[in-house]
Amino acid sequence: MTASHTTAKISARLADFTKSFRAHFAAEIQNPVVLKEMRAAMRGIRPTVLLTIYLIIMGSVVGLVYASFALADDVTTSSNTSQTLGKAIFFTVVSLEMMMVCLLAPALSAGSISAERERQTFDLIRTTLLTARSLVAGKLNSSILFLFMMLLIGFPLQSIAYYLGGVTIEEVLVSFLMLGISAIIFCTIGIIISSLVKTTLAATVVSYIITVLVLFGAPFLLLLVAMVGNVIPSSLNPTPFQEILLQVIGFVIGYIIIAINPLSAAVASEIMLIEQQQLFYTTLDMSYGWKFPVISPWISYTIFAILVSLALIRLAIYMVRQVEK
Q1: pLDDT (tens digit, 0 to 9) for every residue of the chain, 325 residues total?
Q2: Please, what is the end-to-end C-alpha distance for the chain in angstroms?
């Protein structure tokens, strides 16, 4: 088989995959539930006011950050100050967008299924040809699309950080990927809770509780593991092999806790990029010259969030089918 023939086969497969993806994406966008929910969400002056307030808040905070640096030093002549300002603006914008995702995702998705029960329209949906998968996918996609729209609106503010320096295009793309994945998983959590709980209020409260536990529970566990890790080795007086083994166990547990949390994964990935100039892979120093291989936490978080989201979507579809029966 010649190289040209192999290249042609790869190109044909990529073309088939692209065509299939476009068809699937178009089908999901044309889902009647998505069209209905998006029209309802964008109708009237409420979404315009919400987006305007969102941009005003983000722009004001970024302006305050710029003003604080401008008063302290001349950001136009000092390269180091300009890069530090770029980092500060980038961190501020990403933090605000992550806060927006965590606050809005449960509110947008928690009442998706339960609200249909409360309005007594769920039985009407059952009489249509709409399947449980289409209902869950439509409700989920409409919530995700609204959050993605808000993320795209705030994206130009990140370009300011890129223009000032100190932030690479890879960091901007990775941050947007993590924000998008976080929007998906938090919306998925809202959907599954909405399919399990009968009232919208209860579903919203439970979704926010789970969101808070996901965001702040992992850092607490990481702190607890760090405290235990500092106490155990000194109390056991381990041999060199036992010391390395304890360090490996501590690294693995700590890495898992970091990788399942969007905040800790983003911070750890940024630290790895700043200190070791590595965006995908690095090694950590251990005792006796050993090296521990580590994949950047944002990669593990992305894979973990996608797998959990797919599992929760399948569970939500199953629960809706059970309700229909």
Answers
A1: 455 556 666 666 666 556 554 555 555 556 666 667 667 666 767 778 888 888 888 888 888 887 777 776 655 555 666 777 778 888 888 888 888 888 888 888 887 777 777 777 776 776 776 777 777 888 888 888 888 888 888 778 777 777 777 777 888 888 888 888 988 888 898 888 888 887 888 888 888 888 888 887 766 776 666 665 555 555 556 666 666 677 777 777 777 888 888 888 888 888 887 777 777 777 776 666 677 777 888 888 899 989 988 998 888 888 877 655 5
A2: 55
Name every residue whose Cβ is closer than 8 Å to that of residue 194 and which is 6 or more positions away in sequence.
Answer: 109, 110, 111, 112, 113, 114, 115, 139, 200, 203, 207, 316
Q: How far is CA 136 from CA 101, 130, 213, 252, in A?
A: 20, 10, 24, 35
**Are 250 and 229 spatial neighbours (Cβ–Cβ below 8 Å)?**
yes
The three-class DSSP label of residue 44 is coil
Report residue 269: phi and psi, to 5°. Answer: -65, -40
Distance in angstroms (rounded) separating the CA atoms of residues 85 and 71: 12
Tokens of 192: 């599954």
Spatial separation of the C-alpha atoms in residues 325 and 312, rounded to whole Å: 20
Tokens of 114: 């339960």
Residue type, 131: T
CB 149 within 8 A of CB 233: no
